Amino acid sequence: MLKIEANWLDLRYLDAISTQDTLIHRLNPCVKLITTLVFIIAVTSSSKYEITGLLPFFLFPAVLVALGNLPLSLILKRLLIIAPFIVFIGIFNPLIDHTPVINIGSLVISGGWISFVSLTIRLCLTVTTALILVATTGIDALCLALLKIGVPKIIVTQLLFMYRYIHVLVEEFVRCITAYSLRSFHGEGVQFRAWGSLLGQLLLRSIDRANRIYQAMLCRGFDGEVRLLRTRTLTGADIIYLIFWVTFFMVGRWFNLPQLLGNLLMGVYK
């Protein structure tokens, strides 16, 4: 099985485990979406040199994984796949920012390295939380929640169709790679000069497949609107969940909790 196909099946597995019956899965999708958005805003709006102040935010994904009965290995595996992109985004910071921030003896740590670590932590937190949101909500309920909080219908429809039909593109890509491998005598993967014609064939096949799918949808009465039937009422548990976590995020955003705890302990033992 090709790696891209295996990765796609893993992503589908995230959506599959969203049907579990746990405390987190039973929460209202709108509440989970709003809480996640507040979490992302609180994390990403922190100072570029902030590291210790971000540590309390790890409590949120940790609680969701524990209460939602989610496989931690699967979340970490998804995170490792995008790790190179995270490193690529922040790796230039040490080359740009040479401002001395920390002195440890003769060792001077510049602001570029501090901001690089801070950026890596923030990206890990936000991506992990987004994966957990999909794994505890499901794509259909998530799209319905997006509609309810005011996201334009056209954007939600495109997001839903992209998720539903991207596997068609993956299937076509795997079919092209398999056909090339069966006709190749080298067995060293796709050669560089063959990628142009291969991607061209993939584009033509995708357009033809998309037209056939669209015609099939029209024959079944598709009128441009996707009707999502799952609705959930707001409960007391939803309100408590929302108030608790939003308050925690605001406190964590405006106060450095590890520093306050350290000062408190030093004051007690002084």
TrEMBL record:
<dbReference type="Pfam" id="PF02361">
    <property type="entry name" value="CbiQ"/>
</dbReference>
<feature type="transmembrane region" description="Helical">
    <location>
        <begin position="116"/>
        <end position="147"/>
    </location>
</feature>
<feature type="transmembrane region" description="Helical">
    <location>
        <begin position="239"/>
        <end position="256"/>
    </location>
</feature>
<keyword id="KW-1133">Transmembrane helix</keyword>
<dbReference type="InterPro" id="IPR012809">
    <property type="entry name" value="ECF_CbiQ"/>
</dbReference>
<keyword id="KW-0472">Membrane</keyword>
<feature type="transmembrane region" description="Helical">
    <location>
        <begin position="79"/>
        <end position="96"/>
    </location>
</feature>
<feature type="transmembrane region" description="Helical">
    <location>
        <begin position="30"/>
        <end position="47"/>
    </location>
</feature>
<dbReference type="GO" id="GO:0043190">
    <property type="term" value="C:ATP-binding cassette (ABC) transporter complex"/>
</dbReference>
<dbReference type="InterPro" id="IPR003339">
    <property type="entry name" value="ABC/ECF_trnsptr_transmembrane"/>
</dbReference>
<dbReference type="InterPro" id="IPR051611">
    <property type="entry name" value="ECF_transporter_component"/>
</dbReference>
<protein>
    <submittedName>
        <fullName>Energy-coupling factor transporter transmembrane protein EcfT</fullName>
    </submittedName>
</protein>
<keyword id="KW-0812">Transmembrane</keyword>
<dbReference type="GO" id="GO:0006824">
    <property type="term" value="P:cobalt ion transport"/>
</dbReference>
<feature type="transmembrane region" description="Helical">
    <location>
        <begin position="53"/>
        <end position="72"/>
    </location>
</feature>
<keyword id="KW-1003">Cell membrane</keyword>
